[in-house]
Amino acid sequence: MLRIKTFIKKTKKGGVLKVVREHYLRDDIYCGSEICSQCRQEKTVLQRTAPSLSSLVSQSHYIIPDTNVVLHQMDILEDIAIKNVIILQTVIQEVKHRSVPAYKKLKDVLSNSSKYFYVFTNEHHKDTYVEREPGETSNDRNDRAIRLAAQWYQQHLSNAQQHMEVILLTDDAENKAKARQMNIVSFTVSEYVKSIEAYPDLVDRLAKCNVDGPSEGDGKFKFPEHLPLSAVQRGIKSGRFLQGKYQASRENYLEATVYLTSGNDDESANTVFLQGYESLNRAVNDDIVAIEMLPESKWTCPSSLILEDSEEKEDTEIDNQEDVVKPAKKTVSPKQPTGRVVGIIKRNWRQYCGILQSSIIKQATRHLFVPAERRIPKVRIETRQAASLQGQRIVVAIDSWPRNSRYPHGHFVKRLGEIGDKVIENEVLLLEHDVPHCKFSEAVLSFLPKLPWSITEEDEKKRRDLRHIDVCSVDPPGCTDIDDALHCHKLDNGNFEVGVHIADVSHFIRPGNALDQEAASRGTTVYLTDQRIDMVPELLSSNLCSLRSEVDRFAFSVLWEVTEDADVVDVKFMKSIIKSRASFTYAEAQMAIDDKKRKDKIAKSLRHLNRLAKILKQRRTDQGALTLASPEIRFYIDSETHDPIDVETKQLRDTNSMVEEFMLLANTTVANKIHQEFPDCALLRRHPAPPASNFDPVVQVAQAKGFAMNVNTGKLLADSLNKAVIKKHAYFNTMLRILTTRCMMQALYFSSGTLPYEDYVHYGLASPIYTHFTSPIRRYSDIIVHRLLAVAINADTSYPQLLDKRKTQALCNNLNYRHKMGQYAGRASVALHTQIFFKDKILDEEGYILFVRKNALQVLIPRYGLEGTIYLRDNKTSQGPFSFSEEDGSQTAEKVVLHVFDKVIVQISIDKSNIQHQKLQLKLVEPVVPGFSVTPAQKNGQVLQSAGVEQPPKKKSKTK
Amino acid sequence: MAQISLSEAERTFIIHGIQDNCRSDGRSCEDYRHMDLETDVVSNTSGSARIRLANTDVLVGIKAEIGVPLPERPSEGRLEFFVDCSANATPEFEGRGGEGLALDISNTLSKAYDNPSSLDLESLCILPKEQCWILYVDILLLECGGNLFDVASFAVKAALHNTCIPNVSLHRGEDGETQLDLSDDPFDVKRLDIKQTPSIVTVSKIGHYHIVDASMTEEECCLARLMVGITEEGTVTAMRKSGLGSLHPDSLYEMIETGKKVGKDINKTLYKRLLEEEKLGQNKRKVGFLG
């Protein structure tokens, strides 16, 4: 049966368009229930028995939720207590239209076969399709459609031999009343959930959306009202309001910055500063907001204070914010454009990890939740299990933020586990950095090759057989995802053949399938200290793709012919089959090179490679490539407790640099090739040159020590860095390099069609063009590059998305984001392990001052790659023995003067004063400042076991 | 127009028949042939109608779009007529063959509608000087069986009656730029009042007499004809003579009078039928092109 759906819509140009869609109704849509005998369905979803857990209904029943229930009470529906639910097509469509995250969650639940969620396509069913009536809003029409479908189910199932109720869940009073008139059993979600006695904690997960009424608070509005979306859009169009992404400050909870989005150009975004409750106006980190600029007379600048929202009392008047904000106005630093939030364009609320703030009243059900992310405000939640949630990491979702509430309202989602438990803390870390870490779904796994996997004759025909070549791989110890291998041998004409063989992941991951999509979404493998979150399933990453020794593997090979002096004469790309002879660690490879007695092919090959790499490196350095430093450390993990037992800074050997050098060569060679073949859609990586002002801190520091830094080009900078060496102070140069590293911009993936050729440059490597080709197992960008290269050499077919520069750019944006988050997660993991390592220790360690601040010193401890702050003044009285000199950036106390890069000895311990928020604490040991520095823990640096419970004195100066 | 060859005897037969007020198909001189009318036949237009009169088949679709009013009429919307002579109607229309006729029809229609009393064009204005509704009236000749002008005008009238223009509200931003707000209710529409819109009646002079609704063969015998745009009240809004022969002022007067009389009737009947059809609402049995 044909129906026609008509609607009118406004076009971008301002015209009005009538759109007509054909809509066919069918009589072969089945109910999906096991008890039904009428429908000739092959497979049923809804169970025969759906025992009632609720005391409201005695019989077994199916649940039909309406749109708002699915939108807002997803956490209830996700619970294992809720099964046998009928999701109507009307509901799915509305949810998809209103909220993408909710839609995604709904999809997940639907695909979970143990939940027995059935999708009923009521819009196409001949008996349940409703046409919109004159004067009816589309919401009313959808509600009517939902009721009609519920009624249809009721009548349909009454014909079955077994009795089955259908229950409509709706929070809309009117809808409920109308449903009852039609004799449909209907409840609100809270009525229903409260009646489920077996799962009392479900009640906590109820979202509180409709609580802003007179009952809440004292009716005093604390925040200005948000403008409606239409007004905001008009304002933005007229230029009165600006749109941007809201980023709360990490340091001060009353300050934030909005990054304005002007068109598509999101890099050169302007920023607007916001300060104070009223200006922030209930925006939460990452929201897209509309702001209004304040008149210039009201512009301020960030106060340099570090403020934490530590007020214990709930809902204290916020008038006292004046005291907090005022000091900032006295400062002389230049004022910044300041604005205030007038409306929220899009909330980007997600679920937040954190802990429950201990409440003064034990029996209270309303509690405050403190998120782990400092930029997120505390959240008010209602729970009856507060006692059992103490000391636990929990997850909470924000539901709303009414005008009269100081904190947003939310609900409890789930508990992760004990605070301090390493597994749980890892989980928190992954969740907070948005690292997808759930198991690979069945759909994804279905695209894996079937085991036992073997090379077929057809494969052999298509690929070059390089199994006769002595290839080996060199990787860090314990590495199972080996994605590169090397070889080198002398040719008859005196030249060398050098080969880099990269795991051929694109052979196994075909474009567009679920496996590919999952990998594209994950973007990168994330390395935590004790865990690896794979981008591709383990079968590929550690087995079929990994170039392990003594097995035949597919590879994508780059073969160069180079002269004695490492000049490239010729280059060839090919898909190949290789058989690695050995998987070395860096140390083993180094030994093979150094061991003069070894004369085998592998050792020779390594020696050639090493020699060529040195030439290449020299050449690169001459061109201005930077050698930068960042402290990297390795933990020795106890094999039983998995706690770190010792720390070691990573050692760099010749072999590290050897492998790196050839990978760089391969990457640049491939970058040139794919850019030549696909000038518009090649995926490349660029590293923009930082603006000169970024280097100010380095230049100043070097000047203080008598070195002139030239930062105009990468080459000059590299030269300046090389010259800046103090013989007595061996670590000075490294420190300078560490500082320089921090001045750098982020390297980014991009699609070559989106930028002019000049902007392709990779500053750090001093290469005009660069890409990532060598690690397809752990980076998705490399897979795309493999595909491009394969098309370029006619080894594979292309597909439309590959050649679309906008699609490529969109992919790059995701990869950049994932890459960044992955790195942050990695760093957070190191920090976590450092903290565990110092759990019961007090250590004295050598450190260097990295920055001198007004009220603190930032100290780097090379041995642990650790950076910490020594507060020089008491937080409350802001007094201390030190006085700060702005001119040369030093702190003076009596005879002791502390400059940047000065060596100090610090005592490291864990501040346990707050169980929920343990943090590393540094105290000054040397140079001795009477009344401030502490006595050394143990002269010989031995570990001192502090009594577990006893609190280390917070600050010695205070006890005096 | 499609040519039919008539023998002298056939011609005489027709002329004599008209003299006796009995035409070859049995009609009197002032009778129309049977007409089939259906509105809302093309769902993606704002309004549409199709009329079949004997072998003449005309489909009209109206598309409402927002545009800028003409400078000389800043507070009025407007109608734009466009006639498409499908080569399906007759092979002569192929290529640019139908252009002359198409222009004739659209000119006559725009002339007939070009007066303040027939259609309230001011109601089509959204914002004087800036925005108004423009109704693009597309007339498609599907089959030619004579009397195209009349049928086209009836179909236009019916399509206008069927036209639904979405209600829009305006508000002005701070910078003076106007914004349109569109209701999301498809039933929130404006209808046009077509009571005063003109229909064209073609009066053909054959021999010493004149007839309305000439068939193909009659048109072949006709020396001169007069197209008169007439409203339900009998106001003549447009007039146009075509054909090779000339007309005596007396017969011209008579022909106008006949046109008025027939025009009044046909307008009334058409309006009545349109209202009847509308009353059927959703229960209307759709015929479309397959019925």
Write up this protein.
The complex is a heterodimer of chains A (960) and B (291). Chain A is of the alpha+beta class. In chain A, strands 18, 19, 20, 21, 24 and 25 form a 6-stranded mixed β-sheet that branches. In chain A, strands 30, 31, 32, 36, 37 and 38 form a 6-stranded antiparallel β-sheet that branches. In chain A, helix 3 (89-98) runs antiparallel to helix 4 (100-111) and helix 12 packs antiparallel against helix 25 (805-837). Chain A is globular. Mean pLDDT of chain A is 80; it is low at 211-219, 263-268, 311-332 and 939-960. Chain B is an alpha+beta fold. Chain B has 5 helices and 14 strands. Chain B has helices spanning 8-19, 99-113, 148-162, 216-221, 249-280; strands spanning 35-39, 47-53, 56-67, 78-85, 125-127, 131-143, 164-166, 168-172, 178-182, 189-191, 199-206, 209-212, 224-230, 236-242. In chain B, the strands form 4 sheets. In chain B, strands 1, 2, 3, 4, 5 and 6 form a 6-stranded mixed β-sheet that branches. A 4-stranded antiparallel β-sheet of chain B has the order 12-11-13-14, sandwiched between helices. The two termini of chain B are 28 Å apart. Classes of the chains: A alpha+beta (960), B alpha+beta (291). Chains A and B meet through strand 1, strand 2 and helix 8 of A and strand 3 and strand 9 of B.
